[in-house]
Amino acid sequence: MVSSRAWGSSGGPAPGIFKLIVGGKPLFSPLFAFPISYELTILFTAFATILGMFLLNRLPMHYHAVMKQAHFQRAMDDRFLCRDRSA
């Protein structure tokens, strides 16, 4: 017969049977989870802001009406193209 000490060192008991209390601290406290929750909130807010910016600005825009103009090919090579939308 295998002793309980040998069984515990070979496979260990099922999780949750023994609760290890270290320094009188509780097993879970929201105070310990607060810093990482705060940082993850800031991280996901930054991601949502960048994604929202891309969606609202319709980026990336792979086509624009200016590309149909005849002068556009010359502007791509050695010149600049300025378009005024006020007219």
Secondary-structure topology with pairs:
Blueprint lengths: L3 H7 L19 H27 L15 H6 L10
Task: Give a concise summary.
This protein has about 90 residues and is mostly helical. It has helices spanning about 5-10, 30-55, 70-75. The protein has a domain at about 55-80.
Protein model, in words:
The chain has 87 residues and is an all-alpha fold. The protein has a domain at 55-80. The protein contains three helices and no strands. The longest helix has 27 residues, at 30-56. It starts with a helix and ends in a 10-residue tail after the last helix. The model has no long low-confidence stretch (mean pLDDT 77).
Q: How far is the first residue's CA from the last residue's CA? A: 94 Å
β-strand number = 0
Overall pLDDT confidence: 77
* Biggest sheet details: none
Give the overall shape, derived from the CA principal axes. rod-shaped
Helix fraction, binned, reads: 40-55%
How many whole angstroms does the radius of gyration measure?
31 Å
User: How would you spell out the order of helices and strands?
Assistant: HHH
**Could you name the ranges where pLDDT drops below 50 across 5 or more consecutive residues?**
none
User: How many alpha or pi helices?
Assistant: 3
Key terms:
mainly alpha, rod-shaped, 87 residues
